[in-house]
Amino acid sequence: MALVRQSDDQVERFKTYVRSLNEQFARWIVQQWETKSDKFWSHGMVDYLRHAVIIKRDHPDAAAMLESNGKQERKHEAQLTILPVQHSKVVHFVRHGEGFHNIGIVNEDAHLTEAGWRQAEALNKHIQQLKPSIDVQVVIVSPLMRALETAAGAFGAGAFKGEGRPLMLSQTEDLDERAPHAAVACPEGIPFIAFEGCRERLGAAICDRRRDIACAEQQFPGVDFSHIERGEDMVYEQHKVESEHAVMERGARFLQWIMARPESRIAVVTHCGFIFLTLSAFGHECALSVQEEMHRGFDNCEMRTMVITDAAGGGRFNNTWFPGGRECLR
């Protein structure tokens, strides 16, 4: 009986949160209609969906019970989408491994701990064992040190043997700031591209302020930093927190940038806050189990694979296309 009462309390509390959110949203709708009837209201819609994701994330059992009327989660009818393959990308999202800031030691542009390096190497082993291979064509990585190191550990070609250009140079230990690690080799034919658009949410945490890009270029000669503005971090402002909506918009622009790229199989090594806010704008029409896969937070060095599609036709040429007909006989 106690468990039943506890479940009922959880559902009622969940309903209270939902009613409160809907009440605020309804008032906002009326206000928008009165003052901005000729404008799009996308900002408020995104904000509403973000809060809905957070409520469902914090009360998963109650959400499931409410949406299924106390029974098992209802089976959704198939929601199939068919698009030509060139309008889709397979994206492997990876959160960086454990950084010193994750264990309470906060430094500027935090490095991986020794455990963080082992996590990245464990992910590398997992990727190598996958059958069929995920066959990543490009690695997009945040320019912060912990993400760059994770990309090297997870997608690099192991210890550098002295031939060609290394992906990452060796580094010595700096107590409570940097773990030692050997140089890492570049995998053949896979470019690594640092991109500012997928860095962590900007805020007061000094660990999210990147170093002068020249330092990263020197340490990671196998990474392309041409998309990063030269010099010190001009984006970070210590006392200015990037709004959740701004991160979601940045995430949308980042996904559009990915869709415009020629590769179809992409790895993105980034940060928990950025991934959560970016993905939380999508998937609300899906079954609860699918929403859970998309909207729960990422653990250190966790990899989840998503398929991104663009029904507006933003893809590139499909090289698997065969014209058929008499044209193919010429």
TrEMBL record:
Annotated source species: Coccomyxa viridis
Protein name: Phosphoglycerate mutase
Any one annotated GO CC term: cytoplasm
Domain of life, per lineage: Eukaryota
PANTHER family: BROAD-SPECIFICITY PHOSPHATASE YOR283W-RELATED, HISTIDINE PHOSPHATASE FAMILY PROTEIN-RELATED
Similarity remark: Belongs to the phosphoglycerate mutase family.
Pfam families listed in its UniProt record: His_Phos_1
InterPro entries named in the record: His_Pase_superF_clade-1 (IPR013078), His_PPase_superfam (IPR029033), PGM_Phosphatase (IPR050275)
Coiled coil residues, start to end: none
One function term, GO molecular function aspect: phosphatase activity
